[in-house]
Amino acid sequence: MESTTGLRTDTPSTDQAPADPVAADDMLATQPVGYWAGLAHAAVTRHLRDAMARIDATQPQYWVLNHVKYRPEAPSREETVAALTPLADGPHDIGRVVDQLIHRAWLRAEGPEQSEQSESSGAGQRLHLTEAGEAARVRVRELATELRAVVHEGVSDEEYVAALKVLRRMIANVEAHTAEG
Asked: Could you give the CA distance from residue 41 to residue 33 in angstroms, rounded to a whole number?
């Protein structure tokens, strides 16, 4: 089936309505997914970050602590930054978080002797959780588990999986179209 824009699709098109936060159930199929995905992202992220702030932690700190904990080998600063920057709000956030965690003694950096040139970057050094870092990671994980229960209240695992599958499919559709285009 070809649309008015010349794009080829296999499913019939539903008219796109303007974003409406109070749209009735029978109108949800016309709502823009980006609007609703954006609202969900903002609400969940705000809820998570506000709760984490009350225990003096941040979501990016939790990402870094988990990344270091669950890597088969102690990751370098560079590997950690490269892996987590796509999740962060900006390109320098993860490097700053690593510095904060080292300063808090939640992480320690080990490796080659630092030269004056590499001292500020910690190039080549491997990151390790400290006991305090592991205790903080466990504390934040417990909080995240509690917060997940709040977010998922009234949503079955099957509904949650179905929603994620739909979002994955939409992402794949957009990426495939972009690759063609």
From this structure: 12
Q: Which residue has the tokens 């029978």?
A: 26
The amino acid that residue 86 corresponds to is: P
Tokens of 46: 């705000």
Q: How far apart are CA 124 and CA 139, in angstroms?
A: 29
pLDDT of residue 122: 59
Which pairs count as long-range contacts for 128-134, CB under 8 Å and 24+ apart, including other chains?
128/68, 128/74, 129/65, 129/68, 129/69, 130/105, 130/106, 132/104, 132/105, 132/106, 133/65, 133/68, 133/101, 133/104, 133/105, 133/106, 133/107, 134/65, 134/69
Tell me what pLDDT residue 180 has: 83
**pLDDT confidence of residue 116:** 45
Q: What letters, b where the CB count within 10 A reaches 16 and e where it falls short, cover 59-79?
A: bbbbbbbbbbeeeeebbbbeb
126-129 vs 107-110, strand pairing mode? antiparallel
Block means of pLDDT (10 residues each) for the chain, 181 residues, are: 53 79 90 93 96 97 98 96 95 96 97 54 84 98 96 97 96 91 67
Alpha-carbon distances, residue 175 vs 30, 40, 140 (angstroms):
21, 21, 34
Report the amino acid identity of residue 112: P
d(CA 12, CA 82): 40
